[in-house]
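#lab-general

N.A. 3:47 PM
ok so I finally got the sequence cleaned up, no stray characters, all 482 residues accounted for. can someone with queue access submit it? mine expired

B.Y. 3:52 PM
send it over

N.A. 3:53 PM
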Amino acid sequence: MDWSSLFGGASSPDSDSEPFGPRFSVRAVNLTATTPRKAGLATALDHVGRCLRNRRMNLSARTRLLMPIMLAVAVANEVSGGDWPRWRGPENTGAVADKAQWIEKLPAEAKVIWKVSAGPGFSSPVVEGDHVLFLDNQDDKETIHVFSAKDGSRRWKETLDTTFKDSQGPRGPRCTPVLDGPLLFAQSSQGEFQCREVADGKLVWRTNFADFGAKFIGEKGNAPGAVRHGNNGSPLVDGDNVYVQVGGTNASVVCFKKKTGKVVWASESDVPGYAAPVIASVAGVRQLVSFTAEGVIGLDVKSGKLLWRFQVKTAFARHVTTPVVVGDMVVVSSHQVGLIGIKVSKDGMSFKAEQAWLNKDGAMNFSSPVAVDGYIVGLGPKKDIVCIDAATGQLAWSQQGIVASSADKAYAGFIGLGRNVLMLSDSGELVLFKADPKALAELGRVQVCSANWCNPAFANGVLFLRDGIKAGGELMAVSLAP
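B.Y. 4:20 PM
back already:
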């Protein structure tokens, strides 16, 4: 969407003109001009705000009257279309906002549209338009693949990095990549980061976390977080920027211009955990929330300034769950500490982050939960599905008997569909249930694949997933039409 046409020729609120010192090394390769994808909701809101604040702009009464309509259009553009272009969906929440995609039942049998062989790895697929992006191990190389969403035909593949192996899984990639219009972003376990063109795989720019002082150690000694078991937390695209958990000195999180790789800001020195960051409005301020090896931090999305910090210290920093934001409550989990509700508030010009509650019986290991009408729904420590009040931390209900694997290795991928939740178990069974605050009400189940640790992508009534844990498996598209 061309916002300048809506605002009488006003320039874009974000440009590449901001200077940044030459501290960091980013290599741009044969950058070609690309047309920006539709403006994101955040960019639209920011633009409207600037217009209203800028007295030099001569906004007509008609334009002011149309602003609510423009914002409604922005919201519709942001959440519609059926794409699942990043980890846990369009907003990194695991939820499908488009009501037209919500389902009330599952087919009696899985309807596989197509499937292709997949090498080892834990990367989940993402989907945008007719492109499916996926990483796996091919000939001991972390490899980027793009397939057709319609028929599974391969468009291209390119090498990302060499592989590494440890006791936690197969020799293969562990980070889910990102699709963003004409560009894609892929991150390797050992810290290679690449931006490529979706159409043909041409390299646009790349960098390596070592350029920022990050050191990948592997499974040695007491090394914590991502330096031990690999960089698992997916990058996050927002507007013109891509945010990456690099883990360097004064560069725990780095904000790059997505088209050029230019560094906008770099902040803090935390070692990353294994969780992807999220961007949300917390205590009235839009911020990036990152679950690091040291705890949870909130950073200003424009400047990288640290807004707040909450310490979570555990052995080896196995901090895996993507932060879930419900109002001003940030919820994360550690299998050692438990499920934690962090209340963030303004304190004058600064912020406070305080523990509102702790539920040890609701501890979630490495499956990220979803928020459903003020409740957190996820996989508990007894391989039970749990529903916990996000405001109080109180357990609403617990349901056992759905996930069959051992509690220490149990996994499930959750997708929120309004009041319903679609769950892919680690045995390959798809379960649809209503997450009523009183009890789990099962709506259907169907076997769709074999053993997996996958967060599937759900786009236009089709589930895209991969199976295989210790070895390779299959990447497939499964129709959920009745």
